[in-house]
Write a structure and sequence with these properties.
oxidoreductase activity; Transketo_C/PFOR_II; 2 domains; Transketolase-like_Pyr-bd; Rossmann fold; 12 helices; Alpha-ketoacid dehydrogenase subunit beta; thiamine pyrophosphate; four-stranded mixed β-sheet
């Protein structure tokens, strides 16, 4: 008998993943600004307060450091908190708690304590939001040992990766691409399941170039790849899904097949994860390389307001140009 499923958007898959794990494990607690009675600014926690009550769906003050710090204490004593930060651009007051305490708790206590918590945050641009609402600063967290950083791009992966993150014994930063929260639907099993953290997914197989991406950039990258196929360029698209730890095996295996690479991300170019991927390819597969690695990214500026937002974000035409540059080198 086929497993039951629902046709969900990405944000609905977040809510379904939270609900499934809260039903399964009484230690799972959701907390954050407006996550309770209001259901969250994007309604990702809608209805959870009615079902699980004040003790497990906690409306907090507007204090990111306090939200994260409280969750760390709860995690150290055996609970599995899932704090939400309304937008990734609001997380910086809690950054000290994350890198100084959550990421180090296992090492600092020599394994006596772990920190099983998931920090959820919508990230990225494209929704015409004000300042501080559109950051894509995943590289900051990927640089910190002790943290896992997960970024889904489909509803199915969202629920499965969130389940894996909640069950992880160590802290996970779970970044949700809000641009595609409601962009499309996909069949998602109603039962509990896990998508492994640290495993990339090849979304499109190809032979001419490997294009690495994640989050909201996966869809325009696939669109660009399909368009270039009409020109005879066969691009392989690899959705990393987890940016820390990187799935180096899949990254290198794809590059050894194609000999060319491009990386697409909406964060600024300098210090972005595209540089880490390029360095990995140099270290592990230099003799396969036929062209410089192209980085198709946001610009090294603060994220712009509405008039320039579409220009800032990599879109299919700019992605196509970058892929052509690598293939035609």
């Amino acid at each position: 008998m086929a497993a039951e499923s629902e046709n969900l958007t990405l944000v609905q898959a977040v809510r379904d993943g939270l609900h499934t794990e809260m039903e399964r494990d009484d230690d799972v607690v959701v907390m954050g600004e407006d996550v309770g009675k209001n259901g969250g600014v994007f309604r990702a926690t809608e209805g959870l307060h009615d079902e699980f009550g004040d003790n497990r769906v906690v409306d907090t003050p507007l204090a990111e450091s306090g939200i994260i710090g409280t969750a760390i204490g709860m995690a150290a004593y055996g609970m599995r908190p899932v704090p939400e930060i309304q937008f990734l651009g609001f997380i910086y007051p809690g950054f000290d708690q994350i890198v100084s305490h959550a990421a180090r708790l296992r090492t600092r206590s020599r394994g006596q304590y772990t920190c099983p918590m998931v920090i959820r945050a919508p990230y990225g641009g494209g929704i015409r939001a004000p300042e501080h609402h559109s950051e894509s600063s995943e590289a900051m967290f990927a640089h910190q040992p002790g943290l896992k950083v997960v970024i889904p791009s489909t509803p199915y992966d969202t629920k499965g990766l969130l389940t894996s993150a909640i069950r992880s014994p160590d802290p996970v930063v779970f970044l949700e691409p809000k641009l595609i929260y409601r962009a499309f639907r996909e069949e998602v099993p109603t039962e509990s399941y896990e998508v492994p953290i640290g495993e990339a997914a090849v979304r499109r197989e190809g032979t001419d170039i490997s294009v690495y991406t994640w989050g909201a950039m996966t869809r325009p990258t696939l669109e660009a790849a399909e368009s270039l196929a009409d020109e005879g360029i066969d691009a392989e698209v690899v959705d990393l899904r987890t940016v820390s730890p990187l799935d180096e095996e899949t990254i290198v295996e794809s590059f050894e097949k194609t000999g060319r690479a491009a990386v697409v991300h909406e964060a600024p170019k300098t210090g972005g994860l595209g540089a880490e991927i390029a360095a990995t390819l140099q270290e592990e597969a230099l003799l396969y390389q036929e062209a410089p690695v192209e980085r198709i990214t946001g610009f090294d500026t603060p994220f712009p307001l509405y008039a320039l937002e579409d220009y800032y974000l990599p879109e299919p035409a700019r992605i196509e140009d970058g892929i052509r540059d690598a293939v035609e080198f």
